Amino acid sequence: MTILSRYVLREFFRMAAACILGFLALFLVIDFIEAADELIRYHATAGEMLRYYLFRVPGAFYMIAPVGVLMAVLITVSLRARSNELTAMFTGGISPLRVFAPMIAGCALVSVLTLASSEILAPQANRKAREIARMRIRPGRVAAQFSLNRYWMRGENAILSAQVIDMQNRVLHGFQYLEIDRDFRLVRSVDARTAAFGGEGKWLLKNGRERPLGADLRAAPFTEKEFAFAETIQGFLDGETPPEEMTYERLSRYIGDSHARGYDVRRYEVDLHAKLSYPLLNIIISLIAIPLALRTPRSGGVWRSIGTGLLIGFVCWMALSASLSMGRKAMLPPILAAWLPDLLFALGGIVYYRIKE
Questions:
Q1: Which of 230, 218, 82 lies closest to 155 in space, CA to CA?
Q2: pLDDT given at position 5
Q3: How far is Cα 248 from Cα 277, in angstroms, rounded to an integer?
Q4: How many CA atoms lie within 13 A of 163 on its CB side?
Q5: 60 belongs to a structural domain
Q6: Residue 305's domain spans which residues?
Q7: Using one digit for the tens of pLDDT, what is the confidence trace for 231-259?
Q8: 122 within a domain of the structure (yes/no)
Q9: Which of 180, 205, 239 represents a domain boundary (last residue)?
Q10: Among the residues of 42-138, which ranges form H helices?
Q11: Do 120 and 161 have their domain in common?
Q12: With left for phi above 0 and alpha for psi between -120 and 50, is residue 62 left, alpha or beta?
């Protein structure tokens, strides 16, 4: 690595560290303002709150890294241009590609760190943070646990499970109710395609069968039937494991198993592809940031770069949110919904760079 490459890389990493840490601190402060009231109301100790926000760091880093990298590239290039360093480099016969290649490599390294965080640190850390919040905000409530690609919950005299939890419609898909006696022996099993809780202990089950495990073992199929179970659906809603608490492999296995059973898990497919497309934004964002920072290096360069970075970050977030939402609502194929923002930003950066040349 040449002296020039080491210099550009060092300056970028210094600015990237400052920007990412700054946005990370801002994220945690905003989160504290929103969540601290409930934690304090339920008498969470200082140690519990400290652990809660420490566990929030890996997931927060994953979310804010692209914005931090965008800001770091804009400011680093603006400062080098403002001090005529870039002019000296270009005058000396050094091509723009060679000048900015170390910076792009730095963005790639941040992308790898972001992906590693989402796969190694974030799933378990997010789970622990949610457990702390759940124990303090909703103490005593029983929540379903995710295991063997299904959700399981222990009730008063039964074990309940579901394949897919539809949070929006408050419906369980692939529902199973296993009634047991005091000796933990199976008394009755009820299976249904869908299950909805109607209140006052009433469950409405559709397309299923009921099998009493006594003298008569014959299953009684039903199209729609109301059951009186002591448990409510809230335990499943509280216990749903979001994609950010799963690794890519675990989420992929869950999607494959659910598909094999005939259930629609489109929203999980979108999140699966986003686990790869989102970290790549750390690289793609530099394709937009570098030519923008070179546009007006002298007229309010740094401050304009900061403002431009915030604006681009907001636009990127809006575009990504809209694309993922359309994918979850079946308006776009899952893979296209996750990768469309990356493709658009990459194309926009290439076109803008060509124009500036």
A1: 230
A2: 87
A3: 12
A4: 20
A5: yes
A6: 3-138+263-356
A7: 889 889 988 899 999 999 999 999 999 99
A8: yes
A9: 239
A10: 46-82, 85-91, 96-116, 122-137
A11: no
A12: alpha
Check pLDDT > 70 for residue 278: yes
3-class secondary structure for 13-62? HHHHHHHHHHHHHHHHHHHHHHHHHHHHHCCCCHHHHHHHHHHHHHHHHH
Q: Looking at residues 61-75, what average pLDDT do you find?
A: 92
Contacts of 295 by beta carbon, 8 Å cutoff, 6+ apart: 356
Torsion of CA 24, 25, 31, 35, to 10 degrees: 140
- Given a contact cutoff of 8 angstroms between Cβ atoms, the answer to whether 220 and 170 are in contact is no
SS3 category, 213: coil
Q: How far apart are CA 202 and CA 199, in angstroms?
A: 6
pLDDT exceeds 80 at position 333: yes
Q: Is 318 exposed, middle or buried (0-12, 13-18, 19+ CB in 10 A)?
A: exposed
Longest alpha-carbon distance in the chain: 93
The phi, psi pair for 262, rounded to 5°, reads: 85, 25
Residue 15's nearest CA partner among 336, 286, 208, 334 is 286
Query: Is the pLDDT at 119 greater than 90, yes or no?
Result: yes
- Bridge partner residues of 49 (DSSP): none
Whether residue 122 sits in one domain with residue 9: yes
**305 and 216 share a domain?**
no
230 and 273 in a single domain? The answer is no
Q: Are 124 and 158 in the same domain? A: no
Global pTM value: 0.87
Phi, psi of 214 (to 5 degrees): -120, -135
Position 240, amino acid:
E
Which residue type does 94 have?
I
Checking if the pLDDT of 300 tops 60, the result is no
In whole angstroms, give the CA distance from residue 280 to residue 271. 14
Residues recorded for the chain: 357
**In a shared domain, residues 206 and 343:** no
- Domain membership flag for residue 130: yes
Q: What is the pLDDT of residue 1?
A: 63
Return the SS3 of 182: coil
Chain Cα centroid distance, residue 163:
21
Q: What total of structural domains would you count in the chain?
A: 2
Each residue's pLDDT tens digit, 135-173: 765 555 668 899 889 999 998 889 999 999 998 889 999
